[in-house]
Structures are given as structure tokens and as C-alpha cells.
Amino acid sequence: MTAGLWEKWLLPGFWITIQLTLYSALFAAVVAFGVGIARTSRLWIVRFLTGFYVEVFRGTSALVLMFWLFFVMPLGFGFQLVPMWAAVLALGLTYGAYGSEIVRGAVAAVPPAQREAAIALSFTPAQRMRRVILPQAIPEMIPPFNNLLIELLKGTALVSAVSVADTTFAAQLSRLATGDSLEIYSIILVMYFVLAFVLTRLMRLLERRAKAGLGQAPDKRAKGPALTRKPSGARKTEQSSDLITAGGAQ
Fold first, then answer.
1. What is the structure's pLDDT at 74?
2. For labelling, which of 42, 58, 197, 250 has a CA lying 20 to 30 Å from the CA of 14?
């Protein structure tokens, strides 16, 4: 493979893939938190509308949605999206629907006693969510979000279908120019793996930091007999009480 292919196609395509992953992940995160929290609303109409959104976008193909946004919307609405943003919108809406279920499940998993304690402290619903529920739910969201982020990264390969010059699109051009499918697609596999590996490490670091904020990080100094340590359930209860107390002090 010549240096010209790297400079003109593969490296720019890899940078496009990074941008697509970043923009789509940010948009999907906004959708996931907005819809996921709304699905816990007391208003049935809010739960119905957000549930309808989740079912629609989980049940449709991201590729077909991309085609619809790029090819159909200009004909029906007279509005043309740039291929890059059509791809970001399709990926963000699709993976945001999956992410919203992660958010909803993590929020629902927070012990009811935490909500009751926040109510006893006269927290408003917004304060309960921001100071009590989300700080405990976010560490539980990160591992499934990590898997979803890797799936999103691999899903960016779909954008080559609407002529976005990402890594996969650059690989197709390189294969047509050289006829060497083995070398080019092997390199592309390695490039995707490296990017996925880096994202995984970053998400694990974020998970450790989030758990450390709740006092859930492993204590390396605790090397004494097991009988002298507090049970994990007692530690969690004590940590949760500290969190509520801290929130009330604010």
C-alpha cells in the first residue's frame, strides 16, 4: 500500500470515523438521558410518548433511517441534510433509544429508601434526581453504555452507504485502486479494534472515577481479616446515607 493512500484516504477516513463516533455518542447520550428519565415520569402521556419513541427507533434499521433522512426527506420536505449530519442524526436517534432503556433501568434500580430520604429532606423532584438518584445510578449505567458505545463505533461503518468518507468508505476506494482486498481490510479491522480498545479503557477509567465518588472504589489498605470488615450491604447503606446527608447540606 502506498503512502498516498494513507494520506489521501485512510487517515482522513479514520478521522471522520472518530468524529462520527464522538458526535453521535454525544447526541445519543442527550437523547438517552432525556427519554430515559422521562420514562419514569408520573404522567402517563409522557411515559406513552417516550415509550412509543423507543419502540419505533429500536424496531427500525439505522441504515434505512439514514437513507430516509438523506434521500426521502429532501423530496417530502424540501430540506437537504449534509450526509455527515444525516448520519449523526440517524445513529444518535437509534442508539439513543437503546441507551434510554439503560438510563431507565439504572434509575429504577436506585433503592426506594433513597427517594424517601430525599423527600424527607424536602428535596424537589429535580433535586432528588440531580443530587440523589443520578449520582447513584450513573456508575451502574457506564458498563452497558460502554458496550453500546462500541456498537455505535461499529455502526458508523453504515455511513459509507450515503457517501460519507469514513474508514470503510476509504477502504472501498483503496481496494478499487489497488485490488488488494486482504491487506486493506485487515488494516481496517485493526484500526477499528484499536479505536474500540481505547474507548473501552476510557470508559473503564470513567467508571472507576464515578464509583470512587460514591466511595465504592476497592480499598487496597483493607488487608485485615474478613471478620473485621463491614459487610458490603452495610457499607452501601452507610455510603447512601452519607450521600443523602451531603445533598441535604448543600
1. 85
2. 58
